[in-house]
Amino acid sequence: MLTGKQKRFLRAKAHHLQPIFQVGKGGVNENMVKQISEALEARELIKVSVLQNCEEDRDEVAEALATGAEAELVQVIGNVIVLYKESKEQKTIELP
């Protein structure tokens, strides 16, 4: 579980990132969760954009992605979800 201080640190780090995944009409599926998991292993911190045509609630999408990819949900702001997962191979982010 992340502390408030760690979440603040990760939010600041994520600020300049562009979303690399988009959740659209199809919602969250197994394939997407697998790709997000792989992206988290490579980058540790990613943004996911929830499109207007997504039928699921963005909080449900965030929960499903975090659970599926075994990642920490850093924040949901607007239609953007920020996820963090410590990398096993390429650890670059040192949490405070």
UniProtKB/TrEMBL annotation:
GO function terms (MF aspect): RNA binding
Pfam families membership: CRS1_YhbY
Alphabetic keyword roster: RNA-binding
Record-linked InterPro entries: RNA-binding_CRM, RNA-binding_domain, RNA-binding_YhbY, YhbY-like_sf
Record-annotated CRM domain positions: 1-96
Signal peptide coordinates: none
SUPFAM superfamilies for this protein: YhbY-like
Name assigned to this protein: RNA-binding protein
Organism from which the protein derives: Halalkalibacterium halodurans (Bacillus halodurans)
